[in-house]
C-alpha cells in the first residue's frame, strides 16, 4: 500500500494516495508493527502527500514521527544515511507550512550537510537544496537564495543536461530561481534602477518559461505543478501587458485546479489574479467578469480559512499565503 501511495503521489494524485496510507498505518498500529525502515517510510510519504494537498497539520504530525524514528535508527548504527537526510528536509517543509521559516531553514541546512557527509548523488540534493533556496527567498535573503539555487541548477545541468526529463526536480529549481529573480527585479525597481530591473524581469520570464517546459516533459500538461508554472507566466504576461496570453495561462491553471477540494487554495489565488487582471483591462464586460472572479476568489479563501473577509481589503499577499511555499 505504501508503494501504491508513492506511485500516486509521483503521478500527481497525492490526495488519492492518502487513503492507502491511512489504512496501512491503521493496520500497523493494530498489529503493533514497528519494522524499519518501512514504518518511517510510510510516515514520510504521508507527510509528502499532506504537503502536496495543503494539509499542514497532517504534514507536521507525520514528519515529526518520521524524524524521531529515523534518528533512533541512526543512533543504533552511529552512521547517518539518506533516509535521515531526507527526514530533515521533510521536517523543514512541515515547518515552512506553518510559517516557522527560520526553524525550517535549520532543518534544510542539516539535510544538505548530511547529504554532503555521505557523498550523496547529485540528484539527492534536488529537494533539500531547492527547499533551502526557497526558505532564503521567503525570508528576503535574495542573494543567498540566488546562489543556492543557481549552484543547484548548475549541478543538475552538468549531471543530466539542460532541461532534463529525468525528474521534475529541475523544474522546481527553475520555478524557485525565477521567483528570486522577480523579487530582485522588484527591489531594483523600488530603487529606481529600471534598466537593471528590466534585465532581471527578462531573466525571470525566461526561467519560468523553461520551468513550464520542464514540468510538461516530466509531469505532463495537467499536473498541479504545471498549473503553478502557468500562474507564474500569467503574472509575467500581465506585467508585459500581453493580456490574451495572460488569460490563456490562467485558463490552463484554473482548468487544472478544477473544483477539487484540495486545490481550493491554488484556485482561489489564480481566480484573484484573473479577476484583478480583467478589472484592470477595463470595459464593462471585463469589469463584470473580473468582479465575478474576485468574488469567487474571496469565497474560496473564506472556505479554506473558515472566515468571512471583506473583498476590498484583500491583497495578492493574502492569496499567496494560502499556497505552499514552492507554489508561490
Automatic annotation (TrEMBL):
SMART domains in alphabetical order: TPR
InterPro entries named in the record: TPR-like_helical_dom_sf, TPR_rpt
Origin: domain of life: Eukaryota
Endpoints of the signal sequence: none
Protein name: MalT-like TPR region domain-containing protein
Native source species: Bionectria ochroleuca
Amino acid at each position: 500500500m505504501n508503494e501504491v501511495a508513492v506511485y500516486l503521489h509521483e503521478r500527481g494524485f497525492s490526495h488519492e494516495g492518502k487513503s492507502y496510507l491511512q489504512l496501512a498505518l491503521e493496520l500497523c498500529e493494530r498489529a503493533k508493527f514497528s519494522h524499519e525502515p518501512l514504518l518511517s517510510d510510510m510516515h514520510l510519504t504521508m507527510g509528502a502527500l499532506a504537503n502536496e494537498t495543503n494539509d499542514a497539520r497532517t504534514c507536521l504530525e507525520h514528519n515529526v514521527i518520521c524524524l524521531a524514528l529515523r534518528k533512533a535508527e541512526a543512533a543504533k548504527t552511529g552512521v547517518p544515511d539518506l533516509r535521515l537526510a531526507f527526514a530533515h528536509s521533510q521536517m523543514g517543509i512541515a515547518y515552512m507550512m506553518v510559517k516557522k521559516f527560520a526553524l525550517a531553514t535549520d532543518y534544510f541546512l542539516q539535510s544538505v550537510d548530511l547529504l554532503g557527509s555521505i557523498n550523496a548523488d547529485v540528484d539527492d540534493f534536488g529537494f533539500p537544496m531547492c527547499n533551502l533556496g526557497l526558505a532564503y527567498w521567503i525570508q528576503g535573503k535574495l542573494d543567498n537564495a540566488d546562489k543556492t539555487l543557481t549552484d543547484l541548477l548548475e549541478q543538475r545541468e552538468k549531471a543530466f543536461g539542460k532541461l532534463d526529463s529525468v525528474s521534475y526536480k529541475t523544474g522546481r529549481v527553475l520555478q524557485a530561481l525565477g521567483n528570486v529573480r522577480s523579487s530582485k527585479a522588484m527591489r531594483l525597481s523600488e530603487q529606481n534602477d529600471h534598466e537593471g530591473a528590466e534585465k532581471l524581469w527578462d531573466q525571470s520570464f525566461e526561467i519560468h518559461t523553461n520551468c513550464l517546459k520542464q514540468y510538461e516533459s516530466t509531469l505532463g500538461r495537467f499536473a498541479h505543478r504545471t498549473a503553478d508554472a502557468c500562474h507564474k507566466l500569467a503574472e509575467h504576461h500581465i506585467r508585459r501587458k500581453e493580456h490574451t496570453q495572460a488569460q490563456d495561462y490562467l485558463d490552463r491553471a484554473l482548468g487544472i485546479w478544477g473544483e477539487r477540494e484540495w486545490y481550493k487554495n491554488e484556485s482561489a489565488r489564480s481566480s484573484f489574479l484573473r479577476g484583478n487582471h480583467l478589472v484592470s483591462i477595463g470595459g464593462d464586460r471585463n469589469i463584470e467578469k473580473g468582479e465575478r472572479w474576485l468574488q469567487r476568489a474571496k469565497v474560496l479563501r473564506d472556505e479554506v480559512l473558515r472566515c468571512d473577509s471583506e473583498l476590498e481589503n484583500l491583497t495578492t499577499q493574502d492569496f499567496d499565503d494560502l499556497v505552499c511555499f514552492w507554489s508561490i
